[in-house]
Amino acid sequence: MRRDKKRVLGEYxxxxxxxxxxxxxxxxxxLWQPDLLRHAYRLxxxxxxxxxxxxxxxxDIVRGLGGLQDGAAFPAWAxxxxxxxxAAMIRKRQSARRTRAAIEAEPVxxxxxxxxxxxxxxxxxxxxxxxQLPPDQRSAMALYHRQEMSVAEIAVVLDVPAxxxxxxxxxxxxxxxxxxxxxENGDSHE
Length: 190
Fold this sequence. Notes:
By secondary structure, the protein is mainly α. 79% of the residues lie in helices and 0% in strands. The chain has helices at residues 5-18, 22-44, 47-64, 74-105, 116-132, 135-146, 151-158, 162-188. α4 packs across α6 (135-146), α5 (116-132) crosses α8 (162-188) and α7 (151-158) crosses α8.
């Protein structure tokens, strides 16, 4: 197998970077950045998303470079990391779209009784406030309140730490409370 200059230089830079040479790692990154970026772009089809994926991939490459035993394997190893990161980003986006579509498709349920009109108005206000939330907060609220999932279950579903779920729920509740208070104050002035 014929090895080109880029691969030989890459092997040398991997060995130097593993030995702690920061400049060698910088050169290694500059050497492979364009190829890895094109690969990420081919997989996801969006320039900004490809940049984000590659940034995350380089973090994994930095963390794992010391464990790479064969410098010649660097290109395949780095491409595999970029591929995995891109697939994870695509899965996360698809999940968010499905969740958003499911939330938007859910009908507001009618409430029976003497206060039906007032309750419908309140439900519509809550639905409007929910629709105003960022997708990550709206998803967390829907999973917690409509699907009755625990924080731990939501963390698994959304692939985020439990603390992040708690923070999203807290911010979502504050925004909904503020929206309802604003609506209530607006109604009282009429």
